Amino acid sequence: MINCNPETVSTDYDTSDRLYFEPLSFEHVMEILRVEQENGTLHGVIVQFGGQTPLKLANALHDEGIPILGTTPDAIDLAEDRERFQQLVQSLDLMQPKNGIAHSDAEAMAIADEVGYPLVIRPSYVLGGRAMEIVRDTPQLERYIKEAVVVSGDSPVLLDSYLAGAIEIDVDAICDGETVHVAGIMQHIEEAGVHSGDSACSLPPYSLSAEIITELHRQTKLLALALNVVGLMNIQFAVKDGDVYLIEVNPRASRTVPFVAKAVNSPIASIAARVMAGEKLSAFDLVDPNIDSFAVKEAVLPFARFPGVDTVLGPEMRSTGEVMGSDKNFHLAFLKAQMGAGTSLPTEGNVFISIKDFDKTPMMLEAAQVLTEMGFGIFATGGTAAWLNENGVSCEKVLKVYEGRPSIVDRMKDGDIHLVMNTTESMQAVNDSREIRSVALYDKIPYFTTAAASHAAALAMKAAVQGVIGVKSLQNAS
């Protein structure tokens, strides 16, 4: 095993015969392989377990005559290259968000006019959503092109229509080239637009219909076979208005693999490694991912260690770890995941709610009603307060930061607010509400920046009051 990060806790010294802590560059890897070849026959190299970095080495290693076990370098490139992948998706008659590929600044502007705002921009071959951004207008696009990436023929960018309010889904699967096993389907709790590494998710899905899940199975199998995957693959889908859209495919292990393995109690990484080495899926006892309890993954975010960083989540990954909660009840599983991530949800006090117009939905209304029924006081800014009052939820209006004193920030600093639900949209609104999130972070006030997570938190708090939070060992959790 070659690991470029000696700080990691995921490397077990008992897992491999030899462990190298070296940079994952072509020169270092080739030198290690030269040393290994002196000890015997080199049957091949597995590149699927190290995220994006080893995939970038696959072609160079292949060109040097090093066998790549599992999915071939060409198939990896097919999934990673935005243009080749787009052609494959069209040939399979699958739906993608309306998009275009730009090879120059002018082309990017023209595609933006055609597709329409808001857009998600993603360069080819990116790691952890690096340089991905949601762009809402032409000045923001111009700034992105100027500051974030160089758009050229060698490094084109994909401009996707942003599916506002869509449900995002992660699927992990194993393929042996002939048979496909869907190891896990995870429904994100945060809506599309938040990087999958930062979003809480539920396995099995907590609100998707049986028809949608069947369609996800069908598309996963279709893509695995079309890409000639041998080993692991991860697919990200979005569901909006009953339609399934394909976001992207990664022909490798995703960060969700350890979570899925624990949730369904199946050694999927071990199975995938043996499949890459030539075994067939028929030789293994494969576990149905539709388990009879809910496992909820929550991201651990390091914002408190980086003063001045805004805590709004977006398409670029910022989490540094994750935890898991498990229960027969989805909302209790979500509550346990929050507890594991260090978020202590209150049982009494006051809640501040300020949400963008798009989020003024029956779902957020239910969250506010649940909190009121539990005895919480509701504070809200002007627009949100008017909407809540119109819908029968009593609340107290509070001033925004720039509207005067005492503002919501003053109330938070005085200890009057015990939970924050704040969703924003425009750049101006994000800037105006930045101090709210900063005070919440440093005063350890639980906060949620998406409507879906706010709703899940409210119902989790209700479930905590009504039910008993049970504990059992991980070995007996599934």
Helices, strands, pairings?
Blueprint: E1 2-3, E2 20-21, H1 26-38, H2 52-63, H3 73-80, H4 82-91, E3 99-102, H5 105-115, E4 119-123, E5 133-135, H6 138-147, E6 157-161, E7 167-176, E8 180-191, E9 201-203, H7 210-226, E10 230-240, E11 243-250, H8 257-264, H9 268-276, E12 294-300, E13 321-327, H10 330-340, E14 350-354, H11 362-373, E15 377-380, H12 382-390, E16 396-397, H13 408-413, E17 419-422, H14 427-432, H15 434-442, E18 447-448, H16 451-466
Parallel strand pairs: 1-2, 14-15, 14-17, 15-16, 17-18
Antiparallel strand pairs: 3-6, 4-5, 4-6, 7-8, 7-10, 8-9, 9-12, 10-11, 12-13
Helix pairs in contact: 2-3, 3-4, 10-16, 11-16
Describe this structure in words.
The protein starts with a strand and ends in a 12-residue tail after the last helix. The protein is an alpha/beta fold. The longest helix has 17 residues. The strands form 4 sheets. The chain has a 7-stranded antiparallel β-sheet. Strands 16-15-14-17-18 form a 5-stranded parallel β-sheet, with helices on both faces. The protein has a 4-stranded antiparallel β-sheet with strand order 3-6-4-5, covered by helices on one side. The radius of gyration is 23 Å and the shape is globular. It is built from 16 helices and 18 strands.
